[in-house]
C-alpha cells in the first residue's frame, strides 16, 4: 500500500492538473469567504480612505468581467506555450525527459494562478445585484472586488515570471543541470561516505546462513525449489519498499532474493522474489511481499539511479549524432556524470546482503559496484565520444578528474579499462591529427595512473584540470 501511495504521489508531482485543481478549489473557498465577509461588513469602511471608494454594480461587473475574461484567455495561451515547450524539449533532448518538464512546479503554479483568478471572478460576479434586480437593495462585494484586483496584479507578476521561466528551463544547460543535481543528490542520499579502509562485504559462498540453493557447493538436487512471489502487473518497477521487505522477511522467518531491481521491466506472472524455505511462503506472505513493489508504465528516478544516468547519456549521445554534431553539450553531460562518479568513488557501496536486527540474513538484493555505474555512464558514451576529438579528450579529462578523487585500486583499474576502450575505439573512428591527439592523451593518462603518486601527477598536469580540450 505504501509503495502504491508513493507511486501516486510521484505521478501527481509530474501532472499539470493537480496543483491547478488545488488552487482552483482554494479560489472557490476564498470567493465564498470574501462574499460572506462583505455581507456582514458592507462597504462603508471604504469611505474613510480618499483613494478608495465603493464601486457601483455596473462598474463592479465590468471590472470582474475584464479580469475574468483576460485571465481565461491568458490561461489558454500559457497552456499552449507550455505544451509547445514540452513538445520541443521531448523532440530535442529525448522523450524520457518529458517527465522532467511535466514536474516543473513553475509551470503548474502559473497555470493554476490564471485558472484560480478566473474562477474567483466568476463566482464573485454572480453575487452582484443592482437595485432594479432586487427591488431597491443593491449588493456589491467591494472587499471581494478589491481582492480580485489584487489577484489580477499577482497574475501579471506570474505572467512576467512565466515569460522568463520557459526559455530558461528549456535551455540545454538548465536541463542537464536539473538532472545532474538530482543525480548528485541521490548519490549522496544512498551511499555513505567511506570511513577508513573499506571492509570486505562479499559473502562466504559456503556460509550456512545462506539458503542451500545459493551456496557454492549446492547441486541442483539439493537446491530446493524456492517459494515464488509473482508480479500482478506488467511494466517497470518504480519502487521497492526495502524496509517493509526486511520486516516481512523477518516476520515470516524467510530469506528472500530479489530477481529484479528498480528500473527493470517485468510482466504479470513473472517471479519477483525467491523465498526460502518455501513452506513458509504462504499466500498471505506472497500477497504482502508483492505489495512492496510499485509497477508503472515508465521508469522514474524514485529509486532508479540508472535512470538519471541514462538521461544524461541520452542527451550526450544525441548531441554527438551526425545530425546534431554538438560536442560541447556532450562535454556538459560528461562534466555532470564525472561529478557524480567522482562523488561515488569516495563512498562505500553497501553490501547486497541485508540482515535484520538479530543479525540473521533476510534479503539478497542485486549487487551494485562502482564498475557497474562507470559502465552505465562512461562505458555507454565511449562509442559516441570516440568519433569526435573534442568529446574524446573531454572524456579522458573527466576520467582523470575522477581518478584524483579515487583511492581504491580496483576502482582505478575500472577507470583504466575505459581509457583503453576509448583509445581502441578512437583508433578506428578518428584519422590524422585527431587520432594522434586522443591517443597521446590516453597514453599520458594511463602512465599517470600507473604511478604510485598518480594524484600528484594528475594535479601537476595542467592539461587535465584547466578545462582545455
UniProtKB/TrEMBL annotation:
Keywords: Membrane, Transmembrane, Transmembrane helix. The chain crosses the membrane at residues 16-37, 63-88, 109-128, 140-163. InterPro entries: DUF2254_membrane. It comes from the Bacteria. Coiled coil: none annotated. It holds the Pfam family DUF2254. This is DUF2254 domain-containing protein.
